[in-house]
């Protein structure tokens, strides 16, 4: 009697446990707190552990939790502040992927957040509505070090950002987070028998952290209980190095409505969709006629390998050649007020004309070589102290990315989004004719047949001759191995380094490093002007202004700046006149 009762109860508990573990987790939505009309977010990067496999803890890192982080919600036009506290026990940074912000607020490798410190980024939200994400962007000493971007993202530091605007506010599309507007953060991972993540499993994982197990929102091949209606999925490929060729198990059509940086002009019906690392797509799936049925989301790798090979042999693994399941959908009752149709027009995308670019006849070249041990762009491996490209403020430019390697590379450019002009592997597909910030550049097909993509991008604001933006491959191990460069946008009217060298010369700080409470700034100027002297933090915030609009005549000058109360660290002294500025690095010990 007891035994008969016992067996079904145990079975029920096991099934219930598996079922509950397999439910798609939805990251919490964080709308920030309003602080003096600034939408303010607090993010804590820390280490703990996560249960992916039943009863086994995997050491992980996350934002405000053990793995991944909250989905941040912002609206175009918001003034935003993000306080990021690092308790990882190692240096890190946090980058707002896809955001059009000043370089100093970008969270790239120059905006270091040392352990136990807080970095604050403040900016106006200029991007239009889309799906973005945040993740560390820290340059490791050696590419496979765990404190690099690849290591930190792999441990779990990645999460989504949703930006809304007046266009999406007015559109009748699914937009209730967690109900009919669902984030899907797709990653591949591998596990050791003790539950720890296995970082490097085999080729191609000898050089890239790829896995053999699919996670969505931090759960292994989960199931979404999808209401029988139109559901919008915001898909982020947050994998270190794997691209996917998405499609449903019944080969149904779905609609793509958004790409990296915004809505598409109109919904595009597809039954396959390529997504490379760091790309985002928004799709709408119509489950209206599927009540009580189950459907899977697959990567149709067996088709993809022929259409768009991302790794050549022998760098392929089973998931580059064989179809596999990413997650499932179990269709449940519709909500009370479902969206049942999509508008035929979503937004207006003004397309750039290649002829309007300043360099339309000679595109700015970026040549990718996947060398060993260092990967390069234009022959250079990333050096934090080298500015690779200088761009004039106001330019609309064509960039031509040429891939000489046998691996496809997802090329990401920081700053404002770009548009795709051409591809070497056929016409630009409809779903790439929107706003993009990552573009998958095809592999070379032999020595004389490189993969080439041309993009067009505006550089209309945020001139800064000191703090650069990055461009890089978003296969994180390639980025960490140096497939990354830096560009600055300079305003030749007010901040030309060349011109300023003629106006202000022989500038120096002494002593430097300084442990006294004063530092001398010495410079020679050829024009009389009003000068402002400021102390700027390593992350670009003005800490103190020493002299404001001080009248300075021509000739050599020495001023004493008071550093009392300034803690040790790396700073900059900015010497700014109406005609330009120079910045000198100052180490306080
Ligand atoms: Cu790459």
Mind explaining what this structure looks like?
The strands form 8 sheets. The protein has a 7-stranded mixed sheet, with no helix packed on it. The protein is mainly beta and 589 residues long. The protein is globular. The protein folds into 4 domains: 31-169, Immunoglobulin-like (Sandwich); 171-348, Immunoglobulin-like (Sandwich); 354-490, Sandwich (Immunoglobulin-like); 497-588, Macroglobulin (MG2) domain (Immunoglobulin-like, Sandwich), CATH 2.60.40. The chain starts with a helix and ends with a strand. Bound molecules: copper (II) ion.
| CATH homologous superfamily identity of the largest domain | Cupredoxins -  blue copper proteins
Helix fraction?
Answer: under 10%
Distinct compounds present: copper (II) ion
Look at the helices and sheets and give the structural class: mainly beta
Distance between the termini: 78 Å
How much of the sequence lies in strands comes to: 35-45%
* CATH architecture title of the largest domain: Sandwich
Q: Identify the overall geometry.
A: globular
CATH class of the largest domain: Mainly Beta
Estimate nothing, just give the exact number of structural domains: 4
Q: What's the total helix number?
A: 6
Radius of gyration: 25 Å
Which regions are unreliable across 5 or more consecutive residues at pLDDT < 50?
1-20, 495-499
